[in-house]
Amino acid sequence: MKQVLEFEKPLVKLREEIEELRRKQASKPSEKLVAQLSELEKKLENLQRDIHTNLNPWQRVQISRHINRPFMLDYIKHCCDEFIEIHGDRHIGDDHAMPAGFATWGGKRVVVIGHQKGRDTKENLLRNFGSAHPEGYRKALRAMRLAEKFGLPIVTLIDTPGAFPGIGAEERNIAEAIAFNLREMMMLRAPVVAVVIGEGGSGGALGIGIADKVLMMENAYYSVISPEGCAAILWKHREHAPEAASALKLSAQDLSKLGIIDGVVSEPLGGAHNDHSAAAESLKNAVLDAITELETFAPDALLEHRYNKFRALGEFTEN
Questions:
Q1: In the structure, what pLDDT confidence band is assigned to residue 26 with cuts at 50, 70 and 90?
Q2: By the 8 A CB rule, do 102 and 134 touch?
Q3: Which CATH superfamily includes the segment(s) 60-311?
Q4: For range 11-33, the mean pLDDT
Q5: Half-sphere exposure in the Cβ direction for 71 (13 Å, CA)
Q6: For residue 9, what are the contacts with CB-CB under 8 A and spacing of at least 6?
Q7: Which residues contact 251 (CB under 8 A, 6 or more apart)?
Q8: Is pLDDT of 319 > 70?
Q9: Residue 144 confidence (pLDDT)
Q10: Higher pLDDT, 202 or 156
Q11: Which residues, 6+ apart, have CB-to-CB distance to 92 below 8 Å?
Q12: Considering the chain, what percentage of its residues have pLDDT values greater than 90?
């Protein structure tokens, strides 16, 4: 499935010109075509670097939602040698929007939990567009407790516009499920690394986001509300979403400066949707580094570190 973002259209046009020249070169090779190809490829690289090193927050939000961006299970495929999924919350049922299971991540045994979106209508209906139900959060907590029992680090991959707001989810206490996770994750005696790989929307993201290390992919966002939702409330129209995105300070770069997150995971030039393998390698190494650091903490020290980390959020001093 092909998706072209508005600010990427000049890049698409250049790529089409390059492909046309390559076809000509294949049929009738010439030194002139080789020189033209080299010039256009250099121009493409420079333009791509210029565009993607000067992205505004709204453009990063658009990239975070790109249909070709790697999702949770894509990263599992690239980062893990094996993945054994578990199912069900032992209360209501299974939630396909929140896969969870045991994995080997770069040689380390871990428990991985995350949101999973779909790329077509059928898969999106199965995955509920990445918006988990209460049973998804209860399954996640079940997996975390298993990790704690067996002394395994926990990795959560966040990618959701928000928890599912439907009537059924409300009847099954979606707010209570998320709130319960927040409390229980604060007390887990196992290292927790959370990574926002795409969208980090509201409580749906926070329900698996209480971690000793909170990381974000370079073009992800993490916010209490979507830019469109914020614009609808403050400006009474969704067309002001770009302004809302800037005001919300939701980008990885802004949140890193504010001390809300602990690190930014770099993406390949042009965004993770252009090179899944390179993005996964970057994520894999960042998570391994975080786990290695957290494994030096004794359980009691880990709990104190986690408490102090979240207790300090929102504290600022001015000169």
A1: confident
A2: no
A3: 2-enoyl-CoA Hydratase; Chain A, domain 1 (3.90.226.10)
A4: 82
A5: 19
A6: none
A7: 57, 60, 221, 245
A8: no
A9: 97
A10: 156
A11: 134, 135, 138, 172
A12: 78
Q: Would you kindly state where each structural domain of the chain is located, as residue ranges?
A: 6-54, 60-311
φ, ψ of residue 108 to 5 degrees: the values are: -100, 135
Q: Tell me the C-alpha distance between 46 and 39, whole Å.
A: 11
Question: Could you read off the pLDDT of 246-260 as tens digits, one per residue?
Answer: 999 999 999 999 999
Burial degree of 220 (CB within 10 A; 0-12, 13-18, 19+): buried
Q: pLDDT-derived band of residue 288, with 50, 70 and 90 as boundaries?
A: very high
Question: How many of the other CB atoms lie within 10 Å of CB of 106?
Answer: 14
pLDDT at 1: 60
* 124: its two tokens: 């999106």
163, 190, 185, 183: which is closest to 175 by C-alpha? 163
